[in-house]
Write a structure and sequence with these properties.
This protein is of the alpha/beta class. The chain folds into two domains: about 5-175, 3-Layer(aba) Sandwich (Rossmann fold), CATH 3.40.50.720; about 180-305, N-(1-d-carboxylethyl)-l-norvaline Dehydrogenase, domain 2, CATH 1.10.1040.10. About 45% of the residues lie in helices and about 15% in strands. The strands form three sheets. A five-stranded mixed beta sheet has the order 5-6-7-10-11, sandwiched between helices. A four-stranded mixed beta sheet has the order 3-2-9-8. Strands 1-4 form a two-stranded parallel sheet. The chain is globular. Bound molecules: ketopantoate. Ketopantoate binds near residues 127, 245, 249, 252 and 254. Ketopantoate binds near residues 245, 249 and 254.
Amino acid sequence: MFGAGATGSVFAARLTTAGHSVTVVARAAHVAEIRAHGLTIEGIRPGRFAVSAAERIAGLPVPEALLLTVKTFDLDSSMGEIAEGFSPLPPTLLPQNGLGIDERVRGRLPEPARRSAPLVRAIASVPATWLAPGRVRQAGEGELLVGAHSGNAPHPWASTFRELFRGSGIPVREVADLPREEWRKALVNAAINPVTADHGVLNGRLADDPWRGQALALLHEARHSAALDGFEFGEAEAEADLFRVVHATAENRSSMLQDLERGRATEIDAISGTILERAWSHHVDLPATRRAVDRINEHVRRRDRLRAPQSS
Ligand code: KPL
């Protein structure tokens, strides 16, 4: 598990339940806690799980499977370390939020590995919250979708991950058209993440106004961008998807809210920024999405100004 934040840590714990031997590569404080006390999961199916932990992959054996669970903004730097440390690259799961993730990762690999790399894009809906080093919460049930590009046969590596998670409590479902599912998740993230991060509210608050109205405005602009990109989502279908996730993850802090609070970069560019760019490439502006990107970037700037050492 490379990059064990909230989601990666939940995956790591659940995979040990399925009988696998798991090593997480994570930040020093998380590694120290895990080594001393194990990995603690709160929320559903709580417990303390024995996983190995390391700060770097140098010196680790090439694993049978790699789950790359860093955030989108850490993908580029991670791929350098991974390509150097693990050769040939094992089957690698990419469960990030956002659009165009596998093309981006593939682009970081050297030739000839680039074309044949066993990358498996996955869409994750497991609500996980970072509590402290060594401790995360799984706020509800969720699943992983893996699959093929439309019209292609499912990639054999997708089944590898379905088998790996068997018995873990996280179902892996193979779907026929993964790019459509990637868009479906992007619509949900485009509606939930900026609004929850902007106002500091739990996902469940989006069931009510004024947040509901803001989320719907973002959802419908994102639908417009998806349609321009060749993926039509009806209004009723998109709203049903949104409110299903809002209710299923009601007690969760969205990953963007957690990133803001933890002083990290956010995925606003990979989610809303990409949606905006795809619409712009068709000469269409999405004003609510543009404002959401500006507001989140402004939060980040304000936060970083407050944290910066003051000169006298
Ligand atoms: O993917 C998520 C995220 O926070 O990034 C949802 C599904 C919105 C859960 O919080």
